[in-house]
Amino acid sequence: SQPAPMLELKELVVSYGAVRALDKVSFTVEEASVCVVIGANGAGKSTLMKAISGLVPVAAGEILLEGRPIQNMSAERRVNLGIALSPEGRRLFPELTVRENLLMGAYLRRDQVEVTVDLERIYGYFPRLLEREKSQARHLSGGEQQMCAIGRALMSQPRLLLLDEPSLGLAPAVILEVIRAIRQISQDGTTIVLVEQNARLALKLSNHAVVLETGRLSLAGDSKDILNNPQIAAAYLGRA
Ligand code: ATP
């Protein structure tokens, strides 16, 4: 029989009081793929990431991780099952060093030797973080903060990595550096769901794309097909 997909959303509904932020959103993410979530401000992208990681309650529908319903589990339990979020705005501990921030991502782990190995692996993805290892997070540039936030998420050894706007506010050269690392992380076998404002960039980076419009899924498909379809490209990507 077919293995269950890494992630499956079924008719997911999330509300903030009277605001329905997600309205029956359904899609599937296959293991080892990169799925990008595109949409305007307020479309529900961050809410989607929070719902998957357990930071906002689900009003209806299901979230399946490798076939297993997780929508009623705590965020901590989901980390243990292999989901990690690098949140929008990064949320590092400003007074802690880069290394200490990274180790915070491993706080649920008991395998200290392997934690050190993973730290080295993250410095491999982001050599800049090794150079800044002893700096307090508050002294980092925006790009370095982003790298540190992604690294911290990786320290829980996720099978599913959620990245909320990793390129937000970064200079083009730094964006390329972050993208190169995301590609590498994906090639090493981690499944990735990524929120990205820059649709063209996002489609080049991903295998699969979903478009949210005011809480509803308006398009889902292979990133290549979307990039190569002139009508869709015009509607979602604007002018080249
Ligand atoms: P952005 O790119 O601006 O972060 P987004 O696509 O991530 O946008 P969300 O942040 O998920 O969108 O917001 C979706 C909708 O839910 C918006 O209408 C927003 O105003 C509303 N919303 C988000 N968080 C809350 C909250 N804590 N309380 C009330 N409404 C909220």
TrEMBL record:
Residues 7-239 form the ABC transporter domain. It comes from the Bacteria. Belongs to the ABC transporter superfamily. This is ATP-binding cassette domain-containing protein. It comes from Alcaligenes aquatilis. The chain holds residues 291 to 530 of 531 of the full protein.
